[in-house]
Amino acid sequence: MLRTVAGVADGIWLFQMPSTGYIRWACELVKQARPNGKPVEIGSVFPLRITDDPKKELDNLKPWMAYYLSLPAVGEQYLERAGYETNILPPIREAMKTEELANPHDAFKAGNIPEAVKHIPDELVDDASVIGSAIKCRERLAQLDEAGLTFVALSFQTHFDSTMSKIREILQS
What we know:
This protein has 173 residues and is α/β, with parallel strands linked by helices.
């Protein structure tokens, strides 16, 4: 799909919360598939949490990661291309019940989220988000740039007010 889109589009939107390894893989594949080496915009969305308590925020994002990994084919691509083991997928999918549901979004209602998140390592969520002090967040954004993204969308979700008051720290440092 990435090769096809790279041949015809001016931009590509990767799925939400990709890891750095997946980004590198996808960006390299897209650049190789571009006709005449034409530039292409590549972006994705990441949760942004400027905080002194990153563990709490990682835990809050684990249900979303469990959901994404529970999706058939998505979880495999996500983990394999990023260099993570896929052995965490069966217990996550069993807990989230996405393979049994007509609509995977129902996993948040029907799934056993507390069980699913037990199988999500902190480092995976950290690798797929922008969480920490203002300095760490700025460094993480630089890593995403170095991995090949040309733009990012940052999701504040329920943290809008507190994030907006802290975002200046990222921009000024």
